[in-house]
Amino acid sequence: MKQAITRRQLQPPNKQAAVFQHVRRAHQMEATEDYVELIDDLIACEGEARLVDMARHLGVSQPTVSKTLARLQREGYVNSQPYRSIFLTPKGKKLAISSRKRHDIVFKFLIAMGVSEATAKRDSEGLEHHASAETLHAFNNFIESRSRTASG
Amino acid sequence: MKQAITRRQLQPPNKQAAVFQHVRRAHQMEATEDYVELIDDLIACEGEARLVDMARHLGVSQPTVSKTLARLQREGYVNSQPYRSIFLTPKGKKLAISSRKRHDIVFKFLIAMGVSEATAKRDSEGLEHHASAETLHAFNNFIESRSRTASG
DNA sequence: TAGAAAAGTTAGCCTATGCTAAGTTTATTA
DNA sequence: TAATAAACTTAGCATAGGCTAACTTTTCTA
Ligand SMILES: [Mn+2]
Ligand SMILES: [Mn+2]
Ligand SMILES: [Mn+2]
Ligand SMILES: [Mn+2]
Q1: What SS3 class is residue B3?
Q2: A131 to chain B: nearest residue by CA?
Q3: Is residue A5 part of a domain?
């Protein structure tokens, strides 16, 4: 099939700017979402969330985690005493749950699309932060229609 | 359908760290990719890429664009004289083309999934930077199978 | 239980990306 | 063509998120 001529056309400046602003806001939440999700997982799987384990799982140094946790505490997502393990506030727990739900949908969707598990894990870690409710809904429908086809 | 019990399980620290490191590398390229893509579009649609138009489309101030362009020039993606319009180097042009191709696939894929145009535009602007070759391939297959179904 | 190891903090550095205010250069227009 | 407006730059500031080095606290273990 021949490639159609790509008649490129620019969005109106204001509209495109709104899109980029939206993406920047999503970026601001990325670290927060990944952190609370990891804290919740660590508590669920290991019994507690230690800074050193967070650093290991995130692939960053302990001081980096320490500094980011200070921000998260300031913003009311986590709670911790010096030298002690980390807890989620209700606000943090809520964000962790919704982040994980979204992450799971994106991951399962990629698997349903035929992507390998390793790639689905990698890509979903970045994609998750940029999938709107509408897109997640479409992804979820796809997952469900696939599982119906497979099992029915 | 009942919700299966989510037996959450943590990845091995090293593996998860590698995933996050991969996402961080992708993030480092985001601004670069968005900038060269926009420059290429502006040249194609308006005849030239002016800093003021970039600022308007990106939704940031002119000094912000100025500073980022200085970095892109340092890194060999763009070329410009003070007070003059902006040009892509061969390296920048190549990145612009591949970025746009990837952006287009993600956008068209969301449309094929039944997502509205406004949402597809928004989400694809963030998602594009985190879709691997394997995932893009799966997306592309889906787009093509859909267009076959629709037209055939 | 004392010493060593591990965990966590603090200080100080860096880059990227945002901003405003103020100055300079280029382009428009009266 | 002189004055004004627009575009661009520069300076200076802020925050987020990286890092290493050095220090403190806690935990483990001999
Ligand atoms: Mn996640
Ligand atoms: Mn993530
Ligand atoms: Mn793009
Ligand atoms: Mn983008």
Answers
A1: coil
A2: B123
A3: no
What is the spatial distance between Cα B39 and Cα A21, in angstroms, rounded to a whole number? 18
Residue B144 half-sphere exposure, CB side, CA atoms within 13 Å? Answer: 8
Q: What is the pLDDT of residues A78-103, one digit of tens each?
A: 999 999 999 999 999 999 999 999 99
* Residue A7 domain flag: no
Residue B78: phi and psi, rounded to 5, are -135, 170
CB contact under 8 A, B18 and A44: no
Q: Is there a domain that residue A4 lies in? A: no
Q: Which two tokens stand for residue A83?
A: 């030298």
List Cβ neighbours of B71 (8 Å cut-off, separation of 6 or more): none
Q: What is the pTM of this model?
A: 0.94
Alpha carbon distance B95, B124 (integer Å): 17
Helix or strand (DSSP H, E) at B79:
strand B78-79
- Residue B4 located in a structural domain: no
Residue A109's closest CA among A119, A96, A99? A119
Closest chain B C-alpha to A84 CA, distance in angstroms: 20
Total tally of structural domains belonging to chain B: 1
Q: What are phi and psi of A88, to 5 degrees?
A: -90, 140
